[in-house]
Structure prediction request, 58 residues.
Amino acid sequence: MDRNRTRSTRLEARLSPETLAVVKRAAEIEGRSVGDFVVAAARSWLCRSRRILWQRKS
Prediction:
C-alpha cells in the first residue's frame, strides 16, 4: 500500500432546510460543490480545533 496516499473518512450531518439553503448558495457563489465547500470550511476550522485540544491538554 502506498503510504503517501491520503485517506479520507465520510462525514454526515443533518441540517435544517434554511442552513442547507445558505450553504448551497455560498457554495454556488464560490463556484464549488456543496461537498467541496463543506470540506474547505472544515479545513479552515482545523487550526482552531487543534488549539482547543492543545488548551485542554495544558
User: Anything to note?
Assistant: The chain has a mean pLDDT of 89. Residues 5 and 28 are 29 Å apart (CA to CA). The longest helix spans residues 34-57. Residues 17-57 form one domain.
